[in-house]
Structure formats: structure tokens, C-alpha cells
Write a structure and sequence with these properties.
Structural class of chain B: mainly beta
Oligomer: heterodimer
Structural class of chain A: alpha/beta
Largest interface: A-B, 19 and 18 residues
Distance between the termini of chain B: 26 Å
Largest sheet of chain A: 6 strands, parallel
Radius of gyration of chain A: 16 Å
Strand content of chain B: 35-45%
Shape of chain B: elongated
Number of strands of chain B: 3
Helix content of chain B: under 10%
Helix content of chain A: 25-40%
Radius of gyration of chain B: 13 Å
Distance between the termini of chain A: 26 Å
Number of strands of chain A: 8
Number of helices of chain A: 6
Strand order of the largest sheet of chain B: 1-2-3
Shape of chain A: globular
């Protein structure tokens, strides 16, 4: 069986972003698992144009990563109760690459709601892109109590929470790969 | 559809309506295929345009 491909998308370009250590942590936890290949995709490095939108601005490397993937982890901060506009801009640049693949969301916030609101707002977007969202999330918040100034995890409870999240995501990824490759829609 | 990479018969696993302009009534159906051998994803637009 081919290894499952599960990239992690770091969904913000803001300077000093606390989502970066969260994404690095989840990426590290995925790297420890057998039978999985992963990569960390920083949307700040994609440099998508902003004078057009959708599949017209598709980035070949991002598209190839999404096509290879069996699931994606989206690490998103909560800005004004929602996700960064540039994350949506990046996600909108693909479609067929996502369909019937699993998605898990990691919310990051400096406040006590720990990204709960951004996760709720991102779910309908992912559904429309054809992704299948799992019902586990990881909520890093307040983020400054989860990570120290150097980005190291200081709250060990996130290890267990992230493992539960990844267990569910891997299960869904296996099921959906089987479905994509063997069960016709009609 | 056959996989352009390995030649295996691909599985038709989804149909997706896609708006092709800012006019939401004009949309096409994109047929999505997946290769059981290598996992490659392909898509083709259904010839009939709805609108």
C-alpha cells in the first residue's frame, strides 16, 4: 500500500504568527508516524498573484501537493472571528485536487476560544471544495500558553489531543482513498 | 478514462458543479476520476453546460 500523503498547510502570512509553532508541532507529530509522508506548506511562500482568483492562479507545486494528498491539515489563526483572506485565496486555487479527501482543522488563537470560531467558519468552505472534514479539531489557545517564545510546546496535553486528531484523520484518509479508487459514483 | 501516468482504468468517483463565471447560473459539471494504481486525480468537463 502506498503511504498516505498528509501535508500541513500553515494558513497565515502575518509576521509573528503563533500558527507557525502550531503547524511545526503537528507536522512533527505526523513525521513520527509510520506509513505517512508529509510536508509543511507555508502559504507565505506560495506568492500567488492577487490580480485574479480561483484556478486561474493555480500554483503547480501546491496543486501537485494537493493532488498527491490523501488528507490535509489546515492550521489557521482566528482573525476577527474568521480565517485569513489569503488562506481562502490559496484554497480556492484548486478543486479536483481536494475532492473526497479528508481535512482536519487546527485553530490557533490568542484568546480563550482557541480558534473555535474560525473552525466553524472554515467548515462550509472546505465542504464546498469537496473535502470531508473530520469531527476532531485541535484548538491551540491561548496560544501563548501552549508555546514559549521560541516556539517550543510547553503544554504537554496537546500531544494527546493532536494524536487523537491525527488518528481520526488517518482513518478517514484511508476510507476515502479506498472510495476514490474503487467505488464509482454511478 | 485511463490514467495518463500509468494507464490503469480510473474510477469515476465524483461530479462537481462549478461556476464558470461570476454569473452563478452558468455552471458546468466536472467529472472527477481517481487512479486505483497510482492515485492520480483527473477531471473532465461534462459536455452539457447548464444555465
Amino acid at each position: 500500500m502506498r503511504p498516505l500523503s498528509i501535508p500541513v498547510i500553515l494558513g497565515t502570512t502575518r509576521k509573528g504568527r503563533m500558527s507557525a509553532p502550531a503547524a511545526q508541532f503537528v507536522y512533527g507529530q505526523l513525521q513520527k508516524r509510520d506509513g505517512i509522508t508529509t510536508e509543511l506548506i507555508d502559504i507565505a511562500r506560495l506568492n500567488l498573484p492577487v490580480d485574479d482568483a480561483g484556478e486561474a492562479i493555480k500554483d503547480p507545486r501546491f496543486s501537485a501537493s494537493m493532488e498527491r494528498s490523501d488528507a490535509v491539515v489546515i492550521v489557521t489563526p482566528e482573525y476577527n472571528h474568521s480565517f485569513p483572506g489569503l488562506l481562502k485565496h490559496v484554497l480556492d486555487s484548486c478543486l479536483k485536487e481536494y475532492i473526497h479527501k479528508a481535512a482536519g482543522i487546527v485553530g490557533v488563537s490568542a484568546g480563550p476560544y482557541a480558534g473555535a470560531r474560525v473552525i466553524e467558519n472554515l467548515l462550509p468552505v472546505l465542504r464546498e471544495l469537496g473535502l470531508v472534514c473530520i469531527f476532531w479539531d485541535v484548538n491551540f489557545g491561548p496560544a501563548q500558553k501552549a508555546f514559549d517564545a521560541s516556539g517550543q510546546l510547553i503544554d504537554p496535553s496537546y500531544i494527546r489531543r493532536t494524536d487523537q486528531f491525527l488518528d481520526e484523520l488517518v482513518w478517514m484518509a484511508k476510507i476515502l482513498r479506498y472510495g476514490r479508487e474503487t467505488i464509482p459514483v454511478k | 478514462m485511463h490514467c495518463p501516468d500509468c494507464g490503469a482504468l480510473m474510477n469515476h468517483h465524483a461530479d462537481k458543479p462549478v461556476a464558470k463565471s461570476d454569473v452563478p447560473e452558468i455552471e458546468v459539471i466536472v467529472l472527477i476520476y481517481c487512479c486505483p494504481n497510482c492515485g492520480k486525480v483527473e477531471a473532465e468537463v461534462e459536455p452539457e453546460v447548464r444555465g
